[in-house]
Recover the amino acids of this structure.
C-alpha cells in the first residue's frame, strides 16, 4: 500500500495535492506571522495560494515532472523504453503517458466532458430565460452559469479539443513518430483537467462561482467574491497548457517533417496548426498577464485597475483583448484545417488554390493582432483608434473570404460523398459565412455602437464558435473516429445528429440577432416583457439542440465499444495518417516515410503523396486506388503531382 | 478518370444565377421588412438604421451565393451509384478567379468602411445649443444631474427627462464598476467607466417614454438596472425643471441640507409628509426615483414584482426605524434568500426627506396587514 503512494500515479497525486494545501498553510503562517497580520489564517490568502500549489502538487504526484526532477538533481534518469506507449485499458488514460495518440484521446475525451458540462449550464440558463422574471436561479447563480459556460467552452473545450485532434493526427500527417517533446506534451494535457475542475469548483466558493463573465472585466472582477480567483488562476493553467502545446507543435512541424515534405507539401491541417500555434505563443501570455494583474489587485492591493489608486480601468480591456481577439482565430484556424482535409477527400478533388489557402492563414495570423480594439468601440477609449480598427477588422474578411470561395471551388465538379463529416463541413461553410457576415457588420462602428453588449453579439459569437468551430470539431471527430478508435461510427445516427444540430442551432441562435437589435442586452437573468415570445422559442429550440448532442454522445460511446472494425483508409485519403493501420501502430511508422507529392492530388492519375518503406508491414487499404500505391514506389507519378496547373 | 460519363457535369450555371437572384431578392426583402430596431427617437437613429439597410443589401447576396453553390453542389455533384471509386477533375486553382474573389470583397469592404466613417462623423458631430447632462452609473441605478445656469444646485433625477429637438451631451461617469448607458431608441451607447468621463451626443426627436438599459455586466443586479427616458415638449421639460428646483432642491441635496434647516424644517416636513400620497409614490415613484413597486410586492399597493423581497412578509413586524434604514441603506440588513447590493443606494438623493418619511409611515401602516 505504501509503495502505491510512493509510485507516480493517481494515489500519489492526491497525496501531493494535500501536501500542496499543507504547504500553502505553512507559507501563509510564516509570512503572516512575520508581518504580524490579523487574522493569521486569512481564508482568501490560503485559497489563492492553494489554488497554485495544490494543482502543482497533483502534477508532481502524478509524475508529470519525474524525469526532469531526476535529471535536474543529478540522479540517473529512467531511460524511456517506450513501455508506456499505447493504452491497453481505460486505466492507462489516467496516467502520465508520452504517446501522442494516447494524449490526443485524453485531450478529446476530457474536452468533450467539459463540452457536456458547459452545454448543461447553457440549458439551465435557457430554462431561466424561458420567461421574464425570476424562475429558479437567482442572479448570482445565473451570472455564474454564463461565466462558467463560456470559460469552460472556450478554455476547456474548443481550444484543447483542437489541440487534441491535432495531437493525434498531426505527427502522423507529417510522418513523425511522435511530437517533438513528448513529456511536455503529457504535462500540457494534465494541466487542463485541473483548470476545468478548478472552474467548476468555484460554485462551492463562498459568495458563489465567478460571475463577471469570461471576460472578467476589472473592476468588477477585482471586487467580486472569492469565486473569481478560481477563474483567475484556472486560466493560468489552461493558458500554460496552450502555450506549451503550441511550442510543441511549432517545433514538431518545423523539425520533424518526413523527408520530402516541404512546407508546400504539408496538408492544410498542418498549416492551420502552425498558424494557430504562432497565435497561441504570441498572444496567450497576454491573458495570463491580465489575470495575474487582477490577482495582484485583489490579493496584494496593487491598484492596476483601481482609479482611486491611479490605476487604469481600460488597460485591462486592452491587455485582455490583445489575447482574446487572436483567441477567436485560435478557435477557428484549426477548424479551417480540418475542413480543408475533409472537403478535399470527400469531394475527391485537390484543394482549390492550395498556396493561397496557406498564405491566407498567415494573413489572418498577422491581421488578427491588429483588430483587438473593435471589442472596445463603446468602452470609452480614445476615439481615433476606432476607425483604423474598423478598417483592419473589415480587411480580415478578405483572407477569410478567399478561404470560403476556395472551398466552394473545391466542391465544384467534385464527386461529393455526403456522409456525416462532409455534412458538418458543409454546415460549417454556410453557418460560418453567416457568422462572418455579422462579424463584418460588427466591424462597422455606427452599427456596433447600437448592438454591442446585446444578444446580437451572443448570436454572432455562437454562429462563429458553434456554427463555425463546433461544426468543424464534429466533422473532425467523425472523420478521424475510425483512425483513432479503429471502429466505424454509425452513419445513420451521425446524419440524424447533423440535421437535428443544424436545424435547432439555427432556431436557437438566429432569433437572437433580432432581439439583440431590438434592444435586449446580453448577460441578463431577466428581461423586458417585449422579448418574451422570442425567448420562449429560443429556449424550446435550445432544449432540442441539447438533445441532439446526446445522439452524438450515444453514437460515439456505442461505436467505440461495438462498432464495426475500421479499415486503414476508409475514405481513400492520400495523407499519411491513413496509410497506416487503424488505430496506428505504437510508433506510427515502421520507418520514416518519404513524401513525394502534394497531399491533395485526387484525380491525378497515379498520384502519390507519401511512400511508406517497410514492404510487407505496410497495410494495403482495401478499396483504395491511388492511396494504396503506398510502398509501390510510384516515383514517376509523384513528380507529376507536384505540377500546379494554374497556380 | 471518366469525366465525360458524368452527365450531370453540364452544370446549370444559368439556373444557379436565376435561383440566386430570386433568393437574394427574397432575402433582401425580408431583411428590410423585419422590424429590427426599436422606435427611432433621435436624429442619430436614422443614419444608423439606413446603414443597417445597406448592410442587408450587401450581405444577403453574399450569403445566398455561398448557399446556392453548396446546395447545387450537393444536388448535382453528389456521388451516384457506380461512381464510388471516381475522382473529380484535378483542378488546382485559377489565378484569375482568385484575384477576382480577393479584389471584389476588398472593394466592397473599403466602400462600406468609407460610408460608415461618414455616418460616424455625422452622428457624433457637436451641435450648437447643446444641453449637458451628467449621467452617473452605480450598482444598480442611473442618476441624471442637470447643471443649472448660474451655478445653482443641479437638478437630480432617476428618470431621464429630455426636451424634444434639443441636442444633448451626456457626460457619463461610474461610481463603482463599469456600466453602459444605452437608450436603444436613441441607438447610442457608451460605457460608464470608473475614473474617466465618457460622452456621447443625441438629439431626441420623438415624444414618448423609452427604456434605458445598462448594457455592460455590472454585477448581480445588472439585469434589473433598467429605467426610462421621457422625451417631453420643451415647455413640459422647462416646467419639470422648474418644479424640481422649487420642490426638490432638498431632494437633490438630500441629507446635506437637512441639519441646516433645524427645527423649522422638521415641522414643514411633517406637514408635507401628510400631503404626499405615499401609496402613489410607492407604485409610480416621484418622477425622479424608481418606484418601489417595480421590484417589491405589496398587497395594499397591488404590486407583485419579485426582484426584491415581498414587503408584506419582510416588513410585517418591523418598526419605522428599520424601514427607514432599509430604504436609505438597503444593504444594512438583507432578507433571507436575497443578496445585498441589488437595491439602489441613492434613494436618499432622489427622495426628499418628506417623501422618505411618508413612505416609512405608509409601509409601517400597511405592510403585512
Amino acid at each position: 500500500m505504501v509503495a502505491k503512494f510512493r509510485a507516480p500515479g493517481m494515489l500519489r497525486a492526491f497525496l501531493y495535492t494535500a501536501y500542496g494545501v499543507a504547504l500553502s498553510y505553512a507559507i501563509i503562517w510564516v509570512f503572516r506571522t512575520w508581518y504580524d497580520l490579523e487574522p493569521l489564517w486569512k481564508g482568501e490568502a490560503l485559497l489563492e495560494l492553494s489554488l497554485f500549489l495544490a494543482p502543482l502538487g497533483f502534477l508532481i504526484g502524478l509524475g508529470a515532472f519525474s524525469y526532469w526532477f531526476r535529471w535536474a538533481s543529478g540522479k540517473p534518469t529512467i531511460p524511456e523504453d517506450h513501455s508506456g506507449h499505447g493504452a491497453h485499458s481505460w486505466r492507462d488514460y489516467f496516467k502520465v503517458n508520452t504517446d501522442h495518440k494516447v494524449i490526443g484521446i485524453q485531450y478529446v475525451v476530457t474536452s468533450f466532458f467539459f463540452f457536456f458540462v458547459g452545454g448543461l449550464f447553457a440549458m439551465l440558463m435557457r430554462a431561466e430565460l424561458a420567461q421574464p422574471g425570476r424562475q429558479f436561479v437567482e442572479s448570482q447563480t445565473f451570472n455564474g452559469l454564463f461565466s462558467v459556460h463560456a470559460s469552460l467552452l472556450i478554455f476547456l473545450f474548443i481550444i484543447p479539443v483542437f489541440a487534441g485532434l491535432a495531437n493525434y493526427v498531426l505527427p502522423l500527417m507529417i510522418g513523425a513518430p511522435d511530437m517533438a517533446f513528448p513529456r511536455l506534451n503529457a504535462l500540457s494535457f494534465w494541466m487542463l483537467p485541473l483548470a476545468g475542475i478548478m472552474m467548476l469548483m468555484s460554485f462551492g466558493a463562498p459568495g458563489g462561482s465567478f460571475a463577471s463573465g469570461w471576460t472578467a472585466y476589472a473592476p468588477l472582477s477585482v471586487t467580486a467574491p472569492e469565486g473569481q480567483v478560481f477563474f483567475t488562476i484556472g486560466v493560468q493553467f489552461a493558458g500554460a497548457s496552450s502555450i506549451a502545446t503550441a511550442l510543441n507543435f511549432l517545433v514538431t512541424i518545423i523539425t520533424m517533417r518526413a523527408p520530402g515534405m516541404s512546407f508546400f507539401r504539408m496538408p492544410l491541417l498542418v498549416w492551420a496548426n502552425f498558424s494557430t500555434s504562432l497565435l497561441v505563443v504570441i498572444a496567450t501570455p497576454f491573458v495570463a498577464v491580465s489575470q495575474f494583474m487582477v490577482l495582484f489587485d485583489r490579493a496584494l492591493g496593487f491598484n492596476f485597475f483601481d482609479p482611486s489608486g491611479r490605476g487604469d480601468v481600460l488597460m485591462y480591456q486592452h491587455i485582455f483583448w490583445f489575447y482574446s481577439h487572436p483567441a477567436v482565430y485560435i478557435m477557428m484556424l484549426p477548424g479551417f484545417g480540418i475542413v480543408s482535409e475533409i472537403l478535399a477527400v470527400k469531394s475527391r478533388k485537390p484543394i482549390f488554390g492550395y498556396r493561397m489557402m496557406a498564405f491566407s492563414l498567415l494573413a489572418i495570423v498577422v491581421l488578427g493582432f491588429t483588430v483587438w480594439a473593435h471589442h472596445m468601440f463603446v468602452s470609452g477609449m480614445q476615439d481615433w483608434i476606432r476607425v483604423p480598427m474598423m478598417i483592419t477588422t473589415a480587411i480580415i474578411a478578405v483572407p477569410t473570404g478567399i478561404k470560403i470561395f476556395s472551398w466552394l471551388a473545391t466542391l465544384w465538379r467534385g464527386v461529393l460523398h455526403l456522409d456525416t463529416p462532409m455534412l458538418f463541413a458543409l454546415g460549417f461553410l454556410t453557418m460560418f459565412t453567416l457568422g462572418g457576415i455579422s462579424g463584418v457588420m460588427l466591424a462597422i462602428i455606427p452599427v456596433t455602437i447600437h448592438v454591442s453588449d446585446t444578444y446580437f453579439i451572443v448570436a454572432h459569437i455562437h454562429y462563429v464558435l458553434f456554427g463555425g468551430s463546433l461544426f468543424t470539431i464534429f466533422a473532425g471527430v467523425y472523420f478521424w473516429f475510425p483512425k483513432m478508435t479503429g471502429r466505424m461510427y454509425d452513419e445513420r445516427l451521425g446524419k440524424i445528429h447533423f440535421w437535428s444540430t443544424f436545424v435547432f442551432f439555427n432556431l436557437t441562435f438566429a432569433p437572437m440577432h433580432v432581439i439583440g437589435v431590438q434592444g435586449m442586452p446580453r448577460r441578463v437573468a431577466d428581461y423586458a416583457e417585449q422579448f418574451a415570445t422570442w425567448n420562449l422559442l429560443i429556449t424550446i429550440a435550445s432544449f432540442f439542440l441539447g438533445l441532439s448532442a446526446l445522439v452524438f454522445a450515444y453514437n460515439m460511446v456505442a461505436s467505440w465499444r461495438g462498432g464495426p472494425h475500421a479499415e486503414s483508409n476508409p475514405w481513400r485519403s492520400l495523407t499519411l495518417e491513413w496509410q497506416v493501420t487503424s488505430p496506428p501502430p505504437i510508433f506510427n511508422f515502421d520507418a520514416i516515410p518519404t513524401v513525394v507529392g502534394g497531399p491533395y492530388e485526387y484525380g491525378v492519375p497515379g498520384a502519390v503523396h507519401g511512400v511508406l518503406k517497410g514492404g510487407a508491414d505496410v497495410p494495403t487499404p482495401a478499396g483504395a486506388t491511388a492511396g494504396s500505391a503506398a510502398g509501390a514506389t510510384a516515383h514517376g507519378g509523384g513528380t507529376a503531382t507536384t505540377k500546379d496547373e494554374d497556380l | 478518370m471518366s469525366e465525360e460519363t458524368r452527365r450531370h457535369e453540364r452544370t446549370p450555371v444559368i439556373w444557379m444565377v436565376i435561383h440566386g437572384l430570386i433568393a437574394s431578392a427574397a432575402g433582401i426583402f425580408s431583411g428590410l421588412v423585419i422590424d429590427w430596431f426599436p422606435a427611432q427617437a433621435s436624429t442619430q437613429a436614422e443614419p444608423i438604421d439606413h446603414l443597417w439597410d445597406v448592410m442587408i443589401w450587401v450581405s444577403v447576396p453574399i450569403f445566398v451565393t455561398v448557399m446556392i453553390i453548396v446546395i447545387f453542389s450537393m444536388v448535382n455533384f453528389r456521388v451516384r451509384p457506380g461512381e464510388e471509386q471516381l475522382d473529380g477533375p484535378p483542378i488546382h486553382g485559377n489565378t484569375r478567379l482568385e484575384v477576382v474573389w480577393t479584389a471584389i470583397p476588398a472593394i466592397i469592404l473599403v466602400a462600406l468602411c468609407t460610408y460608415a466613417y461618414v455616418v460616424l462623423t455625422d452622428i457624433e458631430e457637436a451641435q450648437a445649443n447643446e444641453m449637458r447632462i451628467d449621467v452617473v452609473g452605480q450598482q444598480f441605478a442611473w442618476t441624471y444631474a442637470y447643471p443649472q445656469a448660474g451655478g445653482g444646485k443641479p437638478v437630480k433625477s432617476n428618470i431621464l427627462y429630455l426636451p424634444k429637438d434639443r441636442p444633448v451631451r451626456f457626460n457619463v461617469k461610474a461610481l463603482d464598476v463599469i456600466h453602459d448607458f444605452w437608450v436603444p431608441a436613441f441607438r447610442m451607447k457608451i460605457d460608464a467607466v470608473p475614473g474617466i468621463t465618457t460622452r456621447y451626443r443625441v438629439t431626441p426627436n420623438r415624444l414618448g417614454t423609452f427604456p434605458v438599459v445598462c448594457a455592460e455586466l455590472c454585477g448581480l443586479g445588472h439585469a434589473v438596472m433598467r429605467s426610462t427616458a421621457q422625451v417631453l415638449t420643451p415647455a413640459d421639460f422647462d416646467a419639470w425643471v422648474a418644479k424640481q428646483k422649487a420642490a426638490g432642491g432638498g431632494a437633490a441635496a438630500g441629507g446635506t441640507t437637512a441639519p441646516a434647516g433645524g427645527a423649522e424644517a422638521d415641522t414643514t416636513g411633517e406637514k408635507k409628509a401628510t400631503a404626499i400620497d405615499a401609496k402613489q409614490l410607492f407604485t409610480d415613484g416621484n418622477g425622479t426615483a424608481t418606484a418601489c413597486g417595480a421590484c417589491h410586492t405589496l398587497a395594499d399597493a397591488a404590486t407583485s414584482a419579485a426582484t426584491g423581497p415581498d414587503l408584506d412578509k419582510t416588513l410585517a413586524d418591523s418598526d419605522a426605524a428599520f424601514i427607514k434604514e432599509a430604504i436609505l441603506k438597503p444593504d444594512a440588513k438583507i432578507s433571507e434568500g436575497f443578496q445585498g447590493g441589488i437595491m439602489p443606494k441613492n434613494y436618499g438623493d432622489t427622495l426628499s426627506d418628506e417623501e422618505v418619511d411618508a413612505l416609512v409611515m405608509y409601509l409601517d401602516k400597511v405592510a403585512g396587514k
